[in-house]
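Section 4.2 – Deliverable D4.2 (structural model, holo form)

The reporting period included a commitment to supply a predicted holo structure for the target in complex with iron/sulfur cluster. Inputs used:
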Amino acid sequence: MRGRRAAARAVPPRPAPAPAARTAARLFRALARATPTPRTELNHASHFQLLVAVVLSAQATDKSVNRVTERLFPRAGTPQALLELGEARLLAAIRTIGLAPGKARNLIATSRLLLERHGGQVPATRAELEALPGVGRKTANVVLNVAFGEPTIAVDTHVFRVANRTGIAPGRTPEEVERGLLRVTPPAHRLNAHHYLILHGRYVCKARKPDCPACVIRAQCAWPEKTAG
Ligand code: SF4
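Output (C-alpha cells):
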C-alpha cells in the first residue's frame, strides 16, 4: 500500500483531455462564484488545534467535533496540555465522537512526538505529518492546505461523492479521485478546490437527497440520476 501511495505521489498528474478540463473549469468557476471565500468549518485557533480537529473528524461531523473541541481546547489546546490531560481524560472528553478510543490514543502519541521531534509545532511537510500516529493522506492534505496554504485536494466522503457524481474525477478510491481532481482542477482553483467540493457535497449534493434543482453546477454535472429542476 505504501509503495503504491509513494508511486502515486511521485508521478505528476497527466494533463486532462480538453473537454474534461473545460467542464471542470466551468464547474469550479460556478462554485467559486457561489462561495468566493470558502473556509473549513472545523473551529481552531492554531495549527495544532486544526490537526486535532481534523483527526477527530474522521467518521464524525464537523458540528460534533466543534461541540467537543469547544470544551477541550480551553483545557488542552497545545501538545503539552493535551499530554498532561492524559489518555483517559481525553477519551472522556471526546467519547461522543466515533472511534474515540483510537483517536485518544493517537492524539496523545502525536502530542508526544510533536514535543520530542518538532519543538511542539505542527510540521509543514507531508512526510513528517504522515509519520504522526493517526495522520493519513487525507488529514495531511487538509493540514497542508488550511494551515500552510498548499494546493492539496483532500478527498473525504463529500468530495468523493461530488467528484464521482459530476464525473469530473471519477474513481473507486480516494487516491484515484484525488489524482483525477489534480488533473482537471485549474491552477487558480486548486487552493480552494477541497472546500468548494466539500461544502457543495455537504449542503447541496447530499448523499441521500441531492438538491439538483438548486445546484449551481447542474449544467456541468453528468450524473444520470440528477433530478429535474
Ligand atoms: S446536479 Fe445534483 S447530482 Fe449533480 S452535482 Fe448538482 S446536486 Fe449533485
